[in-house]
Design brief:
Strand order of the largest sheet: 1-2
Shape: elongated
Strand content: under 5%
Order of helices and strands: EHHHHHE
Number of helices: 5
Length: 157
């Protein structure tokens, strides 16, 4: 049968993590709308060590686009969490290794850009987010081959 390798605590954790990413993306996407862009600019202001430029179409586009991509990333991650219990034991590590790779690539590039452009606090939040995803992946052995043991608290279905 198919294995349920996500114990309830870690499944809830990953759903909450995905929801935070979705919410953050939605906030950034508000930059695309003149009436709501203050939300996105407020987040940007919190992360910046320098004064922000006046709102403009280029910044609205950039923040809004990043928000939409982030929202989509969160939904993709939520989909992976939801589908994992229904996957074969061989396909689970394939999926989660790709997710881990995408997280590491994002972490390195986004953090470097953040520091280089004066938004170093964003690299700190990136570190927290990366650990908040990689720790449950490690604890649930989502990156391991099918021959690995099922984590404590998990059940076969």
């Amino acid at each position: 049968g198919l294995m349920n390798i996500l114990p309830p605590f870690w499944k809830t954790w990953l759903v909450a993590f995905s929801s935070v990413i979705i919410g953050f993306g939605a906030v950034l996407a508000t930059a695309g709308f003149e009436l709501t862009r203050g939300l996105a600019y407020g987040v940007l202001d919190l992360l910046s060590q320098a004064p922000l430029p006046e709102p403009n179409d280029t910044l609205d586009f950039t923040l809004g686009l990043v928000g939409c991509v982030t929202l989509g990333w969160g939904l993709t991650l939520l989909s992976a969490v939801r589908v994992t219990p229904h996957l074969t034991a061989d396909s689970v590590p394939v999926l989660w290794r790709l997710i881990a790779l995408s997280m590491v690539v994002w972490y390195v590039t986004d953090s470097w850009i953040s520091v280089r452009t004066g938004f170093g606090l964003n690299a700190v939040s990136n570190t927290v987010l990366t650990l908040a995803l990689l720790i449950p992946m490690w604890r649930c052995r989502l990156l391991s081959t099918a021959a690995s043991a099922v984590p404590a608290g998990a059940t076969s279905s």
